[in-house]
Amino acid sequence: MTVALRLQDVALTFNRGQTNEACALRDVDLEVQRGEFVVILGSNGAGKSTMMNAIAGVHQPDSGRIELDGEDITRVPDYRRARRMGRVFQDPMAGTAATLTIEENLVLAERRAGRRRLRVPHGAEHHRALLAQLGMGLDERLTARVDTLSGGQRQALAVLMALQADPALLMLDEHTAALDPAAAERVLDVTARLASQSHITTLMITHNMSHAIQLGDRTVMMHRGRILFDLDAEQRVGLTLPDLIDRFRQLAADDLSDRTALG
3-class SS at 51? Predict the structure, then answer.
């Protein structure tokens, strides 16, 4: 398999030299194969979103290297990386234009993907076919304004829009956290299905331990700015929630002991 994303010894400290100095990432190493769906788990402050922001170019690491499809992008500006990355955030309002229609949002996503060069824009039938994949009835509501949709519908639309650029990497930053449980499950189902159909390399952040062992191909646990463990598909077979919690507690305790011994 081909490595799509590689992080090598990535470290990042906020407010270095100040009283509120915080080590956000500690020597993070991660390889993701092309087409893999990796679920990243961890508590608040574990470094999940910081790592994703470093990949996106929002934060520049102090040291280390980030590669996308074999290219060193460590110092590439975020606006240039954005052309090759799709991203969906926690806030359902963030990924769509509220005052535009559903179809206008899809056209916007196509233009953002560089399809403005096409002489004939994709028409209504194409957009209906795309929306039908969501299974939410949006294919019959092309002219509805997005601010009339539910949070779950907006997030599903945001995922679909992010995929229109055929990105090298799709990043989902707790994109179901603001939804009610039923809506979250529907959006996760849509996300997993679309990512699989598109063979898109995907990173998904979650706080939900059940989702972390049920979804995707791998489970990566972060703690205090570093990757505590990384479970592949074979290691996740038969893994229960208590097993995952026990593994976290043991390794987190070992990590604390190691750092205390180092002073």
Answer: helix
